[in-house]
Specification:
Elements: H1 2-26, H2 34-39, H3 52-72, H4 82-91, H5 93-100, H6 102-146, E1 151-153, E2 157-159, H7 165-171, E3 172-173, E4 182-183, H8 185-206, H9 211-233, H10 236-242, E5 248-252, E6 258-262, H11 268-289, H12 302-305, H13 318-324, H14 326-334
Antiparallel strand pairs: 1-2, 3-4, 5-6
Helix pairs in contact: 1-3, 3-5, 3-6, 8-9, 8-11, 9-10, 9-11, 13-14
């Protein structure tokens, strides 16, 4: 039994003693787990001399050398002669072999530490490159729209084609450290649905498809859709500048309490101009993203996209009539 205890001591103590000593000097954290874990872990943010594993790889072979040497040299005395040296070398092969492990082990630790530092440096460089790519993509979006310049729509709205910072965040997803952001397909599809609704609603109002519903369709549907579009696309030319020339109209929706809804300007030209600007802006955003916008092939709506044919669809113009009659009456009644 005593021999087993001695054997266990020789096997484990030369390893455990350096670990405990280094844990006291260089370890961090609690004594249960963290301090020993930090001692046996390579830290790429520290120098080689501060690596506990390096000192363990040096001290453990030295202690094994002393332990095995004590056994090998037992019963022998020091003899500084040629025969004594030969005897020493013959009986010290195992202790010296254990001691010689110190050099390759320390070199191995050094190489592993250098590898971890290199990997961290590569990661930092890659992260920096990704952040540069992300911000470069953002700057390119701003630069792309700058090239468009200002566009006049029907003489009543000037589209400046400036990019609100949140446009990049909404329509392109990803974190700066991940590099070039991805196209947010859901955001693009949402705008396409809004544009489709606005086109259909504007056509129904201009042609006065259902006279009994045209007023509420214009106020509650088309105007709301255009303002939602302008907010989502970041178009202050509509939700700020054009809204200043619009009317705030008290309206009752679905039997609920009165709410005040804002018209899109006061004329048909202003309504069509707002729609055309929102669509033109979105199509340029699609071009930058390398995405084909959803095209409507319905010839019935082509007159809304270009030219002035919309002005002659119905006389008197429906939107102007609404402002002169129903809207004026609603505002007057509220007052």
């Amino acid at each position: 039994m005593i021999d087993i205890v001695y054997l266990a001591a020789i096997v484990f103590l030369p390893l455990l003693i350096p670990v405990m000593v280094i844990a006291v000097i260089l370890g961090n954290g609690s004594w249960l787990v963290e301090r020993f874990q930090s001692t046996l872990t390579l830290h790429e943010d520290r120098g080689l001399a501060e690596q506990g594993l390096l000192w363990v790889s040096i001290l453990s072979p030295f202690l094994y050398f002393l332990a095995l040497g004590a056994i090998s040299w037992s019963g022998h005395s020091i003899s500084l002669t040629s025969d004594g040296l030969k005897l020493f070398l013959s009986i010290s092969a195992l202790p010296i072999g254990a001691l010689s492990l110190s050099l390759p082990l320390s070199v191995l630790v050094s190489r592993l530490h250098a590898t971890k530092q290199t990997a961290k440096q590569i990661k930092i460089t890659q992260q920096k490159n990704n952040i540069d790519l992300f911000h470069s993509h953002r700057k390119e979006l701003f630069s792309y729209f700058t090239q468009i310049g200002e566009v006049e729509y029907l003489g009543c709205l000037t589209g400046k084609f400036k990019v609100h910072p949140r446009v990049h965040k909404v329509f392109f997803t990803g974190k700066p450290e991940d590099g070039i952001p991805l196209v947010n397909q859901e955001a693009f599809e949402d705008i396409e649905r809004e544009l489709s609704s606005a086109r259909w609603q504007l056509d129904a109002v201009i042609r006065d498809v259902n006279p009994q519903l045209t007023y509420s369709f214009y106020i509650a549907n088309f105007c709301s859709t255009i303002y939602r579009l302008s907010q989502k696309l970041g178009l202050p030319e509509i939700y700020v500048e054009l809204s200043e020339k619009s009317k705030l109209v008290p309206t009752k929706l679905d039997g609920k309490e009165d709410v005040e809804l804002l018209t899109v300007g006061k004329t048909t030209d202003e309504a069509v101009a707002a729609y055309r600007y929102a669509k033109g802006y979105f199509h340029n955003l699609c071009d930058f993203a390398g995405r084909e916008p959803d095209h409507e092939d319905n010839e019935e709506f082509k007159y809304l996209e270009m030219g002035g044919k919309f002005r002659a669809v119905k006389e008197p113009k429906v939107i102007e009539r609404l402002h002169d009659n129903e809207i004026k009456q609603a505002v007057k009644t509220k007052a």
